[in-house]
Amino acid sequence: MEKRVDETTRQATRQWTLAQPAVSAFVTSVVRDFRDRDDVLQDVAVAVIESFDSYDPNFPFVAWAIGVARNQVGLYLRGRRRDRLVFDDDTVASLAIAIADVAHEESARMEHLDDCIHSMESRARLLLELRYKHDMKPAAIAGRVDMTANAVAKALQRVRDRLRECVDQKHSQAGAS
């Protein structure tokens, strides 16, 4: 018998998958024990999926998910009050805000990176694809593109420098507008 996932669950799962690294960073910054951390992160994932109907799509999902995580971390910390290595509520709130801000910032930078990669000439894109998508070392790339390994390494460095400049420029322009 085939089970179908409803659209709300599909959307919640898709959003969670994108937000999970930032939420995980937040939980990791507060919960020191790795076994507890995994349990808390699972509790957060379940809470995010179960409460997805209360999410307002006019606001960033990552910030909302970190808010859900704050609640789950709070429950965890209340159970550990006697432990001297537990953050207070203000510190946890500050961490949540900081990680949500960083996640939003990095998301924008990744969009700029994608734009910058697409604007590069085809040879530069090929070098990037071989190096980062196919995880090839310069020596292996050299044989594919009729260059020396040293020339490939230098070309990749120039491409990375151009990408960094492009991303920084787009990020500055986006901040100014």
Characteristic key phrases:
sigma factor activity, transcription regulation, 7 helices, 177 residues, 2 domains
Point out poorly predicted stretches.
none
Task: Give the tally of structural domains.
Answer: 2
**What is the gyration radius calculated from CA atoms?**
21 Å
For the sheet with most strands, the description reads: none
**Helicity level, as a percent range?**
over 70%
Along the chain, the helix and strand elements come as: HHHHHHH
- What would the average pLDDT be, to the nearest integer? 84
| C-alpha termini separation | 53 Å
**Helix tally?**
7
Shape descriptor reads elongated
Query: What fraction strand?
Result: under 5%
Would you count the extended β strands for me? 0
Label the structural class. Answer: mainly alpha
Regarding quaternary structure, what we see is single chain
Family: Belongs to the sigma-70 factor family. ECF subfamily.
InterPro entries: RNA_pol_sigma-70-like, RNA_pol_sigma-70_dom, RNA_pol_sigma70_ECF_RHOBA, RNA_pol_sigma70_r2, RNA_pol_sigma70_r4_t2, RNA_pol_sigma_r2, RNA_pol_sigma_r3/r4-like, WH-like_DNA-bd_sf
Protein name: RNA polymerase sigma factor CnrH
Keywords: Sigma factor, Transcription, Transcription regulation
